[in-house]
Design a protein that fits this description.
The structure is a single chain. The protein is an alpha+beta fold and 349 residues long. It has two domains: 181 residues, no CATH class; 144 residues, Oxidoreductase, molybdopterin-binding domain (Sulfite Oxidase, Chain A, domain 2), CATH 3.90.420.10. Helix content is 37%, strand content 19%. Strands 3, 6, 7, 10, 11 and 12 form a six-stranded mixed beta sheet that branches. Strands 5-4-13-8-9 form a five-stranded mixed beta sheet, covered by helices on one side. Helix 2 packs across helix 6. The chain is elongated, with a radius of gyration of 24 Å.
């Protein structure tokens, strides 16, 4: 796209930058949703490579910028400087989080560096739309010719190599970033629930009072189960991987969801369907009913009762899913016929 002499920088350079920014933004959003180590590693690698790949195009983009500034002021367009600064800061905060030089739970003015990175990424996306508006380029046959594809491949290979070199350097130097999980999260509070950060999803704050009973609903039938009856001794060792950039491994204890549903709603369950797990705050997530055997309604972590900030008296444990699926302060579990994917990819509350 742009891997030729910087003097020939132009349309292909901008197309290359746009492609990398789109991949970085899309993979960044997807990274919040993927919790399984294998897919997460691929998504995070794509995100990091796309971000670092922007550096490869700096010499060519510098030529484009110099040419633009030679034109009359009323023909230069607007937003380019703001977009460049926002992109640079987004890349810098992403590198700071990945390297971990400021600590695995690093704060900037009371806000984790990862949160700053995400906020800057959103701002960069908005500025990109503004900057690109009115500059739409028509596709050209040469975009997909052999030379164009070779340039695109060279840019992708260079970005991947740059990311790989960075990861290798972290491991070689023993930097904190080498200990990141596949999702990019740092360990905090494994086997010590009191050391886990108390985090929230948007406005889903710790309620003044949790429900003393759990409602099980299916086919119009409702059963109330005292929360005190949910500690059945079922134990699952699972990773709580928060989108705030940290993770913790705990032995979660409570009752398996399939066991509870079968015990109280046997004969009322459809052959297929989903379960809505709803918090006392109204926060909810829908999961496949077929996954109920791997889901746990937990009352304890590492042998200790859950703290209010971590979902007491009962929270959902959903292995392989990111933290926003682990509904806190569960008040109701409802069996529904709707498919589990028929919901917002990320909670809106």
């Amino acid at each position: 796209m742009a891997l030729t002499s910087p003097r020939r920088a132009g349309r292909r350079t901008n197309v290359g930058l746009l492609a990398l920014l789109v991949v970085a933004g899309g993979s960044g959003v997807l990274a919040f949703a993927v919790g399984a180590p294998g897919p997460a590693r691929l998504v995070v690698a794509a995100h990091g490579a796309a971000g670092l790949g922007l550096l490869l195009l700096v010499p060519w983009k510098a030529v484009v910028v110099r040419r633009a500034w030679r034109r009359p002021p009323d023909t230069r367009g607007s937003g380019g400087v703001s977009l460049g600064v926002a992109t640079l800061l987004t890349l810098l905060t992403g590198v700071l989080h990945a390297v971990g030089v400021t600590g695995p739970w690093s704060w900037t003015a009371g806000v984790p560096v990862l949160h700053v990175h995400v906020a800057l990424g959103v701002a960069t996306g908005a500025l990109l739309v503004v900057h690109a508006w009115g500059r739409r380029q028509r596709p050209r046959a040469t975009d997909l010719d052999r030379r164009g594809l070779l340039r695109a491949g060279a840019l992708g290979a260079g970005a991947a190599a740059l990311w790989g070199a960075g990861e290798g350097l972290l491991r070689l130097t023993g930097a904190p970033g080498a200990e990141r999980r596949a999702t990019g999260s740092f360990e905090r509070g494994t086997d010590d629930p009191a050391a886990m950060p108390v985090t929230q999803w948007i406005s889903d704050v710790v309620p003044d009072a949790a429900s003393a009973t759990l409602s099980l609903v299916a086919a119009g039938r409702r059963v109330q189960v005292p929360v005190t009856d949910l500690d059945r001794g079922d134990v699952v060792r699972a990773v709580l991987d928060c989108t705030g950039g940290w993770y913790a491994v705990q032995d979660w204890r409570g009752v398996r969801l399939d066991r509870l549903l079968t015990e109280h709603l046997d004969g009322q369950l459809p052959a297929d369907g989903s379960v809505d797990v709803v918090s006392v705050t109204g926060f909810r997530r829908r999961l496949p009913l077929s996954d109920a055997g791997g889901l746990l309604l937990a009352t304890h972590a590492a042998g200790r009762p859950l703290a209010p900030g971590h979902g007491a008296p009962v929270r959902l444990v959903a292995p392989g899913r990111r933290g926003f699926w682990w509904v806190k302060w569960v008040a109701r579990v409802e069996v529904v016929d709707a498919p589990w994917w028929l919901q917002s990819p990320f909670p809106l509350q």
